Amino acid sequence: LLFSRQGKLRLQKWFTPLTDREKKKVIRDMMMLVLARPPRSCNFLQWRDLKIVYKRYASLYFCAGLEDKDNELLALEVLHRYVELLDKYFGNVCELDIIFNFEKAYFILDEFLMGGEILETSKLAVGVSMEEADTLQETMEEYMSKPAY
Amino acid sequence: MALPRMPAPIRLRELIRTIRTARTQAEEREMIQKECAAIRSSFREEDNTYRCRNVAKLLYMHMLGYPAHFGQLECLKLIASQKFTDKRIGYLGAMLLLDERQDVHLLMTNCIKNDLNHSTQYVQGLALCTLGCMGSSEMCRDLAGEVEKLLKTSNSYLRKKAALCAVHVIRKVPELMEMFLPATKNLLSEKNHGVLHTSVVLLTEMCERSPDMLAHFRKNEKLVPQLVRILKNLIMSGYSPEHDVSGISDPFLQVRILRLLRILGKGDDDSSEAMNDILAQVATNTETSKNVGNAILYETVLTIMDIKSESGLRVLAINILGRFLLNNDKNIRYVALTSLLKTVQTDHNAVQRHRSTIVDCLKDLDVSIKRRAMELSFALVNGNNIRGMMKELLYFLDSCDPEFKADCASGVFLAAEKYAPSKRWHIDTIMRVLTTAGSYVRDDSVPNLIQLITNSVEMHAYTVQRLYKALLDDISQQPLVQVASWCIGEYGDLLVSGQCEEEEPIQVTEDEVLDVLEGLLVSNLSTPVTRGYALTAIMKLSTRFTSVNRIKKVVSIYGSSIDVELQQRAVEYNALFKKYDHMRPALLERMPIMEKTASNGPTEIVQTNGEAEPSVVEAKHPPPVTQPTNQANDLLDLLGGNDVVPVIQTTVPTKPASAGGELLDLLGDLSLSGIPPMTAYNKNGLKIDFTFERANPNPNIAVITIHASNSTEADMTDFVFQAAVPKTFQLQLLSPSSNVVPTLNQGTVTQVIRVLNPQKQQLRMRIKLTYTHKGSAVQDLAEVNNFPPQSWQ
């Protein structure tokens, strides 16, 4: 989950099936718990049977839910890596970038993680995939003229 | 006639910008609704050109929390499109809006299948990603073959995605695991880190799920040496900019390998031995200045502790954790405490060495750390360190946040119970908890404490004195008040008599004590439960104090209390004063030492109303207050033998006694007190014997068990035994074991009679028998006069 200090959701990626209502509840709970934490506290907390790892980058909170056997310290590195990927792609990323290009943020995430696990550990490789995929995206003219089916 | 063309739907960016200008929630909602309407009409027009744009906008609105289900089908259409842009958004939409529970996904299967075979790897990638994130079991079943094919491709981009997709398939449909086995053979010989990483994840998943797989990988594939080799290369290799994180080469892969090694080495000597060296190497060579190095060390420690490592390695691991504890970084300290908690069971002594550091963590400002430190501290308490630890823990209890107090208090009680060096220390500790965190103490602690106090016989005077003093200070903490009033009720006489060995006895009069208890009754701070305790305590004092009139007055006032519980008690106590005054001393006697029951369940708490039918309190609400009442209603309590009456002490099973019949079994087991049994009646083949027992606390009560046997060749059914005694006696008849007396002495019907004989008069009884025998009803009356003298003297 990515959310701002005012409690606005910027990105949500779920790796287990939950109903919409359940998702909303989780989001509410996470925001409440994380936003209430004092500034210099530990980045981990326990919620139900999950370990919650969160980190604040500028105005955004990056929040992940882990299973018991996952390594929390590594999760911090995962969050950090994602921020680095965003940064490289957007060039000095800020919250606005993520707001206006949320679909790109998702695409980057999907090149980095899948099913909750890391897909690619090389920053370079993720960057290359994104670039290449982006070139496949049709330009406006191409898009308009190309038949859909 | 051509319809006027709708204006082109606004672009995504435009929409986002517009929505962000909204100043209120209502304004935003309005904009969104307008746009949704436009999108809906556009969808209806089956407009291929703008579908993508509209779905993207819909996804944005969905993230803001608005419903977007009407876009689900549109996502499918996008996925089926030839345009890459469409597919990208379509698949994203599928992952965000659809989940495996919808039926729509069935339609997706075909699209995904086609895309898995697409010529462009990025399209294939999209399909794999979507399947791997939200594929249902049916989809997985249908498409597993395609995934497996892609797992064998030489294209590393696809291979890594296929590997994680396979992980998802296995999670959804474990039976398909076998299918992926052949493809895993060569996975680890890849150079590409992405493939390596995802392969390790795949192998981990397989080993975790299936012990057969695990065994297979250990033996046949020689997985451990392979992994060791890869790990070694990672550590030894020079700087690789692609995978470097703060000077460490691909920590993600290192950690995953360590995790897989953990699974492989667990419980297996050979594997564990093969990895000892590399683990030691990682543990000693990893740079610890940054979080990333510590992440690796953390995983290493977990692995060392889980496998069958040699002791030197284990010590190394615990020392690493010890160093973590001293680290400035809170996260590291937290993680250390968590790991130590896991290892404290197995390597208790090693963890003990770090006890002082752990205890220091109790004072940390961070909430997460405090909690872990508290849990760990309780795990470390033992007979040797109990005094020191308790001091720290009590200090913690004083100063910690309310969210901790309940757990801490319970922990303190448990630890104190297990390791208390002396009874006095124990009582002192309990007092400390009650006075500092009294309102957070769990409800079930109150009966436990009461039982504890009862059993520390020599400490009664000291305990009641301290509790009394605490009450004088503060009556707001309910558990404290409840325990205190119970004690005062029981041991009030010790309090006023001023005998106390452990500390300076205080001078207090009966009136002062009654003032305090009455104060509880009227105070707004007292809960109904507490009031119940107080009233019962006052009642009990009627046998211990001399100012009975005052007590009588108090009790009668509450006979009309609004609180039903209180009213009932007062009425019963009033009755005790009036009609049953002769029973009062017996009922309100000191509680004997209680057997500790395994669970604090309903077995020892039986609420009775003096009726013949006992009722067992529900497990959910074992009101501790009924314990004192239990004693009060002892005689009237048909099941009094359950825990309180010492006569039955040793044979008390902790099952709720139900009908009197069961009680009879209990009583039947008891050795008779030397009163010879007698035959009360013997006619027409029906023989009734009486056996005797005395209920010890009160020699005025004789407990008689009748045994009816039938020597005829037909059963006696509908057998009813009734008895009457002269007016000076009181009789109680419990339920019979059955009302069929079996033929030919094959069994007996038993029934218990309790006779109260306060005036010690000669026992006489008139009995009436009715039964059906061979089809006809039989009735008979008889007098029983031949009671042995011991039964009533």
Oligomer: heterodimer
- Number of β-strand runs of chain B: 12
Gross geometry of chain B: elongated
Q: Which class of secondary structure composition applies to the elements of chain A?
A: alpha+beta
The number of helices of chain B is: 34
C-alpha termini separation of chain A: 35 Å
- Main sheet properties of chain A: 5 strands, antiparallel
Shape of chain A: globular
Structural category of chain B is alpha+beta
Please give the count of helices of chain A. Answer: 6
Helicity range of chain B = 55-70%
**Helix content estimate of chain A:** 40-55%
Main location (chain B): membrane
Subcellular location (chain B): Cytoplasmic vesicle membrane; Endomembrane system; Golgi apparatus
Protein name (chain B): AP-1 complex subunit gamma
Family (chain B): Belongs to the adaptor complexes large subunit family.
Structure description:
The complex is a heterodimer of chains A (149) and B (793). Chain A has 149 residues and is of the alpha+beta class. Chain A has helices at 20-35, 72-90, 95-100, 102-112, 123-136, 140-145, and strands at 2-4, 9-11, 44-47, 50-57, 60-66, 113-114, 117-118. Chain A has a five-stranded antiparallel beta sheet with strand order 2-1-5-4-3, with helices on both faces. In chain A, a hairpin with a 2-residue loop joins β3 and β4 (50-57). In chain A, α2 (72-90) crosses α5 (123-136) and α4 (102-112) crosses α5. The longest helix of chain A is centred in the middle third of the chain and has 19 residues, at 72-90. Chain A starts with a strand and ends with a helix. The mean pLDDT of chain A is 90. Chain B is of the alpha+beta class. Helix content of chain B is 56%, strand content 9%. In chain B, the strands form four sheets. Chain B has a five-stranded antiparallel beta sheet with strand order 5-6-7-10-9, covered by helices on one side. In chain B, α6 runs parallel beside α8 (137-151), α23 (402-419) runs antiparallel to α24 (423-437) and α30 packs across α31 (564-578). Classes of the chains: A alpha+beta (149), B alpha+beta (793).
